[in-house]
Amino acid sequence: MIGGVFVYNHKGEVLISRVFRDSVTRATIDAFRVSVIHARHAVRSPVSNIARTSYCHVKKGAVWVVACTQQNVNAALVFEFLHKMIDLFSSYFGDITEENVKNNFVLIYELLDEILDFGYPQKTDSGILKTYITQQGIRSTVGLHVTCNMRTCTCTCTCMYMYCKFGLFYRSNSFFVDEFEIISLLSNIPGQVLSAHVSGRVVMKSFLSGMPECKFGMNDKLLIDRQAKPSTPEAQSLEQQLAKRSGHNPKSGVAIDDCTFHQCVKLSKFESERSISFIPPDGEFELMRYRTTNDITLPFRVIPLVREASRQHMEIKVVLKSLFKPTLNAQHVEVKIPTPPNTAGVKLISLKGRPRYKSGENAIVWKIRRFPGMKETQLTADVELLPSSTTESSKSKQQTRPPISMNFEVPFACSGLKVRYLKVFEPKLNYSDHDVVKWVRYLSKSGLYETRTQSNY
Questions:
Q1: What's the CA gap between 179 and 287, in Å, rounded?
Q2: pLDDT digit string, tens, across residues 415-449
Q3: Residue range 47-51: average pLDDT?
Q4: What is the separation of C-alpha 42 from the centre of its chain, rounded to a whole number of angstroms?
Q5: Which of 60-64, 96-100, 125-129 shows the lowest per-residue confidence on average (mean pLDDT)?
């Protein structure tokens, strides 16, 4: 599988080196430093093939985390392992920096021996590894009291609830639920959606005493459809009439295309009852991931208008509309408008935000710090073009114009998924579901959010 795992700094020096195959030599390590880190041109691909060796790398700040192999392995599996390894290191000693790697190199080597067996990935869950790896660098939790007893040893030996810790006690029990989504969109000038999908994940932070059983529910369409329906056709028609008068359907749900769960979720109950029941690990963990393509709420709409006044002059007008509630505000809004390669100068006028022309990127970058819902603003750009020959102008007209891209953050779920309930049951300790402080947060970010323009260069 994986021949070796290496950690480089920005100079190309090897901070961590763990070799699992005899085919990986010192020349293999130096090849990545010379061909990728010290390359004259920027390396955009995360996979590099050098001398019959494949290198999969992930860059975190000024640190390169690399896995090399000489076999035909699954690249997606290698990158999934690298990201899990980075998250594991972050849970132990914080950010992945050169100083932290040097200060915790003993811990890193011990973790590599546990999560890799002759190059094959093994357990990468921090909750499992922290039960028997107790090196320096582990961050202590304030207000946490852990007692080691015979029950803990029996749990570890029998592999029952290995992701949990026994003997946890908190003065105040709290539970945090974060729903993060990434929305991707491709639309055209009339506003028609060509493709759109949302990839989301539910991240939880559990600070609960004991080992409570939690039940988590969302407005999943399958769950709502399985609820009690009207017994007679008359009752069903009456319910539809009431829904039309109110203007919305209170039992409408969101169709999830596919989803994956954490190992703590009881899949048997989910398949039978469509309820997510689990015993949460202590601290932060990812409960589920999902993907949906139906009934997506678009946060923004971009309306571009390009007019070529002459061969040396072009007018670009971009109208930006927010389609979410006026009580919400989008942050870090950025619109990237491409310009022709022969652009000589640009004059910009905007009603909101700060637009700038970046000649190195051949684009106008329009940044808006905060944008409220149900608002509209526009940007006007007068572009001066350099004179070009007829052959070059004909070639440029044949080329399609790059789409307008956006980056943003909005405090709601674009997929429409919402948390319906979160119940905590702990019969052994003297606290109930009402004693647990619960917090829910929604945040959606832009993925590949693009709008095609009308004319060609």
A1: 10
A2: 999 998 899 998 888 788 888 999 999 999 999 99
A3: 89
A4: 24
A5: 125-129
Half-sphere exposure of 12 (CA within 13 A, CB side): 11
At residue 371's C-alpha, the angle toward residues 367 and 377, to 5°, is 75
Instruction: Tell me if 217 sits within 8 A of 275, measured CB to CB.
Output: yes
Strand order in the sheet with 313-322: 300-310, 313-322, 376-385, 343-350
CB atoms within 10 A of CB 346: 19
Element (DSSP H or E) covering residue 50: strand 47-50
Tokens 């100083």 found at: 99
Q: How do 437-451 and 174-187 pair as beta strands?
A: parallel
Distance of CA 121 to the CA centre of its chain: 22
Q: What letter does residue 415 receive in the DSSP assignment?
A: T
As to burial, measured by CB atoms within 10 angstroms (0-12 exposed, 13-18 middle, 19+ buried), residue 287 is: buried
pLDDT digits (tens, 9 = 90+) for 152-210: 333 444 444 555 666 678 888 999 999 999 999 999 887 789 999 999 999 999 999 88
Write out pLDDT tens, residues 72-87: 889 999 999 999 999 8
pLDDT of residue 226 exceeding 60, the answer is: no
Alpha carbon distance 80, 90 (integer Å): 15
Helix axes 75-93, 105-115, angle to 10 degrees: 140
pLDDT digits (tens, 9 = 90+) for 93-106: 888 888 888 888 88
**Which residue ranges form the domains of the chain, and what is each CATH number?**
4-129 (3.30.450.60), 175-219+254-290+414-447 (2.60.40.1170), 300-411 (2.60.40.1170)
Q: Which residues contact 218 (CB under 8 A, 6 or more apart)?
A: 254, 417, 418, 419, 420
Q: How many residues does the chain have?
A: 457
Q: What is the DSSP string of 340-396?
A: -TTEEEEEEEESSSEEEEETTTTEEEEEEEEEETT-EEEEEEEEEE----HHHHHHH
**Other beta carbons within 10 Å of 273:** 13
Which tokens belong to 167?
């003997």
Listed in sequence order, the residues at least 6 apart from 22 whose beta carbon sits closer than 8 Å to its beta carbon are: none
pTM of the model: 0.68
Q: From CA 103, how far away is CA 137, in angstroms rounded?
A: 8
CB contact burial 96-116 (16+ within 10 A = b; e otherwise) = bebebbeebeebbeebeeebb
Residue 240, pLDDT > 50, answer yes
Angstrom distance (rounded) from CA 303 to CA 199 = 25
**What mean pLDDT do residues 286-294 have?**
91
